[in-house]
Amino acid sequence: MDSCFLPANDLTHSFSSYLKEICPKWAKLRRNHKEEKSVLMLVLCSSALRSLELIKYVNSKDSVEVGSRSMTAFKGDCRVIKLFAKHIKIKEQMNMLEKGMFHIGVGTPGRVKALVEQDALCLNATKYMILDWNWRDQKLRRMMDIPEIKKETIDLLEKSIIKLCRNGSVKLGLF
């Protein structure tokens, strides 16, 4: 099971530099990804607002993240899907996943778990799951300090992710 863990962010990395370190073959992976209803990389955050913040770095062509160039060097030509509840109905996300092809999903554990349970999101093609581990909210809580986020994250891990880690298909990272 040790082989399923990626190096954790030692707090010297920006989001993009961390992703470049843990996924050096992203361009090739991205080009070969053809599975619908799936993402290659799943990023779990404690809130919709934090998800949007990270998506901004993933999608931005000209913004600069502290300590690195923009995310574009990592991202290349890939599609990102928002996987959280704020202002987005689950049916909309289900339709988007059904009709489109996405490389990175960024969202909250509760919504991701709901999409997996409804067979709208398939994790079999997922290669990387990143937990936004070190980020703290206004009350200085990390994602696992918030009881409902902790519960949803553990449920998702137990029901889906750990099995994929055991068979070697998913690698877990803590950012």
Could you characterize the architecture of this molecule?
This is Protein CMSS1. It comes from Lonchura striata. There is one protein chain. The chain is 40% helix and 11% strand. The chain has 175 residues and is α/β, with parallel strands linked by helices. It has one domain (15-174): Rossmann fold (3-Layer(aba) Sandwich), CATH 3.40.50. The protein has a five-stranded parallel sheet, sandwiched between helices. Helix 6 crosses helix 7. It is globular and about 40 Å long. It starts with 14 loop residues before the first helix and ends with a strand. The relative contact order is 0.22. Residues 61-70 have low confidence and may be disordered.
